[in-house]
Specification:
The protein contains ten helices and seven strands. With 297 residues, it is an alpha/beta fold. It has a seven-stranded parallel sheet, sandwiched between helices. Strand 4, helix 4 and strand 5 form a beta-alpha-beta unit.
Length: 297
């Protein structure tokens, strides 16, 4: 299996890349942060680290520094994949990089306009630029899979205001990208889905709450919802399950979440649990059901 994870530096992208590696895939891990220098997010994670984790998991990780807003860089990346592999089986559009750009609960007329527009470019334009250049390689063979990573299912996002106009547009638009791509890929026997993780125990979130992956439960007394959180590997296992499913076309065009796919395919998170965040939100945090969050693991 040959995969490109665009935005593999950290978080969900890294989790997906590593799990594809565990499935034996060759994974091109792209992003802007390398050991030679950080992106504007100014975090320590690098694409080289991700590629090493992919290889350690059993695959082959290939780090490539790419700014996915630069079409020529993306074009060169795809040409390299074609030259070295001759095919592309899985494209994961996970580029984001906008956490430092949006302002929570700030109306559009007060929000920094330059930051908001930059966020939209990072969240949406990057995915379109990457698809434009990568899909001609992916559609050479039937059975290809495109995964658009976002925050929130279509059902949830359609009924909720997502923090700010800019964040709201970014996360709802990516769901729609998957729907549109599913129509354009259908005649080639390739599928496109949108995938959202739940409460993600990313590097940034663990740091924000002052815990580690080993001590994450210490934050639960302060925020009971955190009990339903998941590792980035969980979404990664969802992507692997989709890629291995010969009947994956049944999902094409749909908005999916890691918990739902875990129920469907039977995989678990790394601790053997099966977090189901979006069902928990619907039934407990918003639905009023009295339940221990642990019941949704």
């Amino acid at each position: 299996m040959i995969a490109l994870v665009a935005g593999a530096t950290r978080g969900t992208g890294r989790g997906i890349a590593v799990q594809l590696g565990a499935a034996g895939a060759t994974v091109y891990c792209t992003g802007r942060s390398t050991r030679a220098g950080r992106s504007e997010m100014d975090r320590p994670e690098t694409i080289e680290e991700t590629a090493e984790l992919v290889t350690a998991a059993g695959g082959k990780g290939v780090p490539v520094q790419v700014d996915h807003l630069e079409p020529e860089q993306v074009k060169a990346l795809v040409e390299r994949i074609d030259r070295e592999q001759g095919r592309l089986d899985v494209l994961v559009n996970d580029v984001w990089g906008g956490d430092h750009l949006f302002e929570w609960d700030v109306p559009v007329w007060k929000h920094d306009l330059a930051n908001g527009l930059r966020l939209l470019r990072l969240a949406i334009d990057t995915h379109i630029v990457t698809s434009h250049h990568a899909l001609p390689l992916l559609v050479r063979n039937p059975g290809g899979l495109v995964v658009e990573v976002t925050d929130g299912t279509t059902e949830y996002n359609d009924d909720h205001y997502r923090l700010s106009l800019f964040y709201d547009q970014a996360k709802t638009a990516v769901n729609r990208l998957a729907y549109a791509l599913s129509h354009e890929l259908r005649d080639f026997g390739c599928a496109a889905v949108a995938l959202t993780p739940g409460f993600l125990r990313s590097e940034a979130m663990l740091e924000h709450f002052g815990v580690t992956e080993e001590t994450w439960r210490e934050h639960i007394p302060k925020d009971p919802h955190w009990a339903v959180s998941e590792t980035p590997a969980y979404a990664g296992r969802a992507v692997v399950a989709l890629a291995r499913d010969p009947d994956r076309m049944r999902w094409s065009g749909r908005s999916l979440d890691s918990g739902r796919l875990a129920r469907e395919y039977g995989f678990t998170d790394v601790d053997g649990s099966r977090p189901d965040v979006w069902r928990y939100i619907a039934e407990v945090s918003e639905g009023g059901r009295q339940a221990d969050p642990g019941e949704y693991r």
